Amino acid sequence: MFLDTIRVMYFLLINKPDVIFVDNDNFVKLIANILLLKDFDKIIKIVIIGEDKLPSVKLNSLESILNYNFDKAEIDEFSCEKNDLMEIAIMTFCSRAMFYSGRAKVPYVAFISPSNQQTPVMVSDTVGLWYGSLYWNHGPLLTVRAILSYVTVIKSRVFSEENLYKTIEKYKVTWVFLSETFNQLFKTNDVSFSKYNISSLKEFLFDDWEVEIFVLKKFISSLPNVSIIRVYGTAETGVIAYQTDNFSRRFKGRVTKNVQLLFVAKKNYPNIHPKLKFIYCKTPHISNTHVSTESAVHLWYSIGDVGFHIKDEIYVIDHYRHFYTYKNKPVRFLRSEIALRLHPAVSDVVVITVPNDDHLVAYINKISGKKVTKEQLKRILQKLPELHQLFPIDDFRFITHDFPRLPNGKIDRTRIHMLN
Questions:
Q1: Which CATH number does 327-418 carry?
Q2: Peptide bond before residue 120 is cis, with ω within 30 degrees of 0
Q3: Which of 197, 241, 335, 375 is deepest in the core (most CB within 10 A)?
Q4: Do the Cβ atoms of 368 and 334 come closer than 8 Å?
Q5: Which residues contact 383 (CB under 8 A, 6 or more apart)?
Q6: What does the domain layout of the chain look like in residue ranges?
Q7: Which residue numbers in the chain have pLDDT < 70?
Q8: CA distances from 138 to 38, 112, 410 (A)
Q9: Nearest to 228 by CA among 177, 302, 166
């Protein structure tokens, strides 16, 4: 899309990167944007993660780098030039941040900060697995931690239940970290873990917000000997908090080491319930370029999420832009979206209000080759009478292309109305 092109060009011109790591699906788009910048004469080293879709063009790939004949002694003795711990080590274009440029600046100290060392526990000569893409919040931190901890990492290109179970069994995986794929595990009623030997698995971590509680409880009961951990954080802050028990739809957990949170009430947000407060964060490695300039929260980083706290536990509800006003009341439609997404033919769902906030529309992204009807979706919602009465959805609109996305890869809800 045009807006995505502008974002990439902006990033290239502002940051002038020396090396770019890019998913194979986005490689062609990146090259096209570089060519559009005719006066951009800087030679950039590009490393492709995944299969090269332009084999005629000779470029580095993760596979080719890993296949080099390295001297192990040289690797063990390798050291970088000394840098100030607060200097920027990594600049990510796609982050959880919702800002236009989508940049997150990660300093060197983030890789050794105590707040980022707890999830997951890494022990040398063990094996970890995650599927998150390059713009995933935890990706850079996990990569560097795994290298420093002598942990082997399995990176599968495509997520599926079968691939997950077989990989754990084959490579004796110790921990798994899932991103935004949790509900996909149990779209059916089958619990497939019992078919595989996954006794090596000790920790199962996830950072998915949109988890239906019955899915989560079924998952926990299927893995009684595995520690289930829900992680909350951003690329800018690293890990903020984690949850190990009493799971619910909202995130309820404890703040990790060296992290402080501030809950601030704000006016002039009609879509936010008055009991919810905006969450600000302070960690030793937050870059000064990220902190707020508001006098009341000076030097605190605005996460953009809203929630509340009770004693030493925090409750995070969602990002403030994911709330709407419906019939003059602040609401969000997460439960409706989760319920509809569990249909086996549905890839993704977004429910919004149009026009004048008194009419609900559900946009449905179907899985190619599968069938779903409006009547089937209505019956799903009718099985949740308390929800259906509050938010009656009769307008279902099917789309065949992907939803517009933010720099963090999440759906840009502010542009959904443009699909009409």
A1: 3.30.300.30
A2: yes
A3: 241
A4: no
A5: none
A6: 5-77, 88-321, 327-418
A7: 1-4, 38-43, 50-70, 75, 78, 80, 93-103, 133-135, 157, 180-192, 208-212, 246-251, 287-298, 355-357, 386-388, 406-410, 420
A8: 34, 14, 15
A9: 177
- At 94, which amino acid appears? C
Instruction: Give CA–CA dist 47/162, Å, rounded.
Output: 29
Is there a contact between 95 and 234 (Cβ–Cβ < 8 Å)? yes
Adjacent-strand bridge partners of 86: none
Structural tokens at position 61: 């790939």
Q: What local confidence, expressed as pLDDT, does residue 63 receive? A: 63
Half-sphere exposure (CA, 13 Å, Cβ side) for 368? Answer: 3
- pTM, two decimal places: 0.74
Question: What's the chain's average pLDDT?
Answer: 78
Tell me the CA distances in angstroms from 252 to 182, 260, 293, 308, one per residue in order.
17, 16, 28, 10
| Residue type present at position 246 | N
Strand arrangement of the beta sheet that strand 277-282 belongs to: 152-155, 127-130, 175-178, 203-206, 227-234, 238-243, 251-255, 313-319, 301-310, 277-282, 260-264
Fold of 88-321: Rossmann fold (3.40.50)
For 81, residues 6+ apart whose C-beta sits below 8 A from its C-beta are none
